[in-house]
Design brief:
- The chain is an alpha+beta fold.
- Strand 1 (19-31) and strand 2 form a beta hairpin.
- Helix 5 (128-150) packs across helix 7 and helix 5 crosses helix 8 (278-287).
- An 8-stranded mixed β-sheet has the order 6-10-11-16-15-14-13-12, with helices on both faces. A 5-stranded mixed beta barrel has the order 1-2-3-5-4.
- The protein has helices at residues 7-10, 60-65, 114-119, 121-124, 128-150, 209-219, 255-276, 278-287, 292-301, 309-321, 338-349, 399-408, 417-424, 437-445; strands at residues 19-31, 35-41, 49-54, 71-80, 88-99, 154-155, 161-162, 174-175, 202-204, 221-229, 242-251, 305-308, 353-359, 375-383, 387-394, 430-436.
- The chain has 14 helices and 16 strands.
- The two termini are 34 Å apart.
- The protein binds adenosine-5'-triphosphate and manganese (II) ion.
């Protein structure tokens, strides 16, 4: 057979009459006694190529093996299609069955539930929906790297295994090489880690921020983009135990610069999707969420609303007074639930919202303290359908204020001398935020559950594949 052409490239081609070869998986086969129409997909695009096979030209055994899911190599002539729905097709001359498909192929039937798809996540990648989602996921990763590269940020790799347990962003997964059934203990019966791999307790990171601050206060502007782990038992459509996070951190940025960055960055990513993923977005808009494209354009075209947490609470309290049924109570000092965030975005402002200046009690110790003594310079970006998509802040740059807060909260700062050194050796104002990559993908694809925008999700009780 001649050299293979990817279907995405083939469908751009109108050089009819030429010999071509495609390889891919059979989506459907239909036809009559004399002619078969085989739709093949190779993952390069959501579109299939139609292969026309005159049955008399082929061994009946081969034709029999061409069922949904089988893998084929086809050589033939590229011709202009007579049928509706495609402009080119391949008149087959040679067909090789690279792999037959067993009858229990789980993606046989259309219209299976997402729950069923998750149980078969190893094969769901071959469906239209998941193909679209994961091509878009790739493009979003490219957009993120391009954005930061174009804006002078350095891609900075922070460790995945960490000995700091002070972040407080979530419950951590412990990392050990010890036999858990025969742990060394000290005289008080406490676990002695001196003979463990690192000689002390270590975990998987919940955020690269603290190390990111070291990067920013040396290189000026950095971003991380890597796996993040939280053992919180949150069985929600917006939480994973293993997710990917993007964390820019910038020296000399205050919270306003930080908000500008967040807004510009997200808009760039959304525009990138519209510019580069048109076919996949059109499919998702048709099959998954009919308001998807409208929502993406809407976010691009409107400024995000910026207001303080305190103003946000006033709006929510008013909504409660007017009878809006929230599940969780609203009061100054409460941590906003997703329903509150979505009310502000979807019902009140009908626009993405950036809330700032949260009560210090519900935010991390490193956030810059406001003069009011009650709030910190935090910012959360809230999105329609999602709720919180970004969490960030201006950081406390003052050593004494930072230490006071650490003592108040009794944060275990053992082994954190290196972080505090940023405030001792040439401290500077700086800011940053964390964007959950899968929450961005949720927004951009219109999918409803975060388990459906990462190839192999990890959630409480689920670590298959
Ligand atoms: P939430 O309140 O939604 O649980 P958080 O405030 O704990 O999030 P941050 O510590 O601010 O989250 O993390 C920064 C960003 O990382 C969040 O804005 C969100 O986009 C994402 N994120 C946080 N936790 C998860 C998770 N378990 N799964 C997927 N994404 C997450
Ligand atoms: Mn947050």
């Amino acid at each position: 057979m001649i050299k293979r052409t990817k279907i995405a490239d083939l469908l751009q081609c109108t050089d009819y009459g030429q010999k071509v070869c495609v390889k891919g998986w059979v989506r459907t086969r239909r036809g009559s006694k004399s002619v078969n129409f085989i739709a093949i997909n190779d993952g390069s695009t959501i579109k299939n190529v139609q292969v026309v096979a005159d049955t008399e030209k082929f061994d009946p055994e081969i034709l029999k093996a061409i069922g949904t899911g089988a893998c084929l190599a086809v050589e033939g002539t590229l011709v202009e299609s007579q049928g509706a729905g495609q402009s080119q097709e391949i008149q087959a001359e040679e067909i090789q069955v690279l792999g037959t498909c067993a009858p229990d192929y789980p993606m046989q039937k259309k219209g299976q539930s997402f729950e069923y798809m998750r149980r078969n996540a190893h094969m769901r990648l071959r469906t239209n929906t998941f193909g679209a989602v994961f091509r878009i996921r790739h493009h979003m990763a490219m957009a993120i790297h391009r954005y930061f590269h174009e804006h002078g940020f350095y891609y900075f790799h922070t460790p995945i295994i960490t000995a700091s347990d002070c972040e407080g962003a979530g419950q951590m997964f412990q990392v050990t090489t010890k036999n858990l059934y025969e742990l060394k203990r000290d005289s008080q019966g406490k676990i002695d880690y001196t003979d463990d791999f690192f000689g002390k307790p270590t975990s998987l990171t919940v955020s690269g921020q603290l190390e990111g601050e070291l990067g920013a206060t040396a290189l000026g502007a950095i971003y991380t983009f890597g796996p993040t782990f939280r053992a919180e038992n949150s069985n929600t459509p917006r939480h994973l135990a293993e997710f990917w996070m993007i964390e820019p951190e910038v020296a000399f940025y205050d919270i306003n610069d930080n908000m500008d960055l967040a807004e510009d960055f997200i808009k760039y990513c959304v525009k990138w999707a519209l510019d580069n993923c048109a076919d996949d977005l059109a499919f998702l808009n048709k099959m998954i969420d009919p308001s998807l494209l409208e929502r993406l354009h809407f976010v691009l075209e409107h400024d995000f609303v910026r207001l303080t947490y305190t103003q946000g609470i006033e709006i929510l309290e008013k909504a409660v007074a007017e009878g809006h049924p929230f599940e969780f109570p609203v009061y100054w000092g409460c941590d906003l639930a997703s329903e509150h965030e979505r009310y502000l975005v979807e019902q009140h402002f009908k626009r993405p919202v950036i809330l700032t200046d949260y009560p210090k009690e519900i935010k991390a110790f490193y956030m810059k303290q406001n003069d009011d003594g009650r709030t910190v310079r935090a910012m959360d970006v809230l999105f329609p359908q999602i709720g919180e998509i970004i969490g960030g802040s201006e950081r406390e740059a003052d050593y004494d204020k930072l230490m006071t807060r650490i003592r108040e909260l009794e944060i275990p700062m053992k082994d954190m001398w290196w972080y505090l050194d940023t405030r001792r050796f040439g401290t500077c104002p700086h800011s940053g935020f964390g964007l959950g990559f899968e929450r961005l993908i949720l927004f951009v694809t219109g999918m409803q559950n975060i388990r459906d925008v990462i190839p192999f999700p990890r959630t409480p009780g689920v670590a298959d594949f």
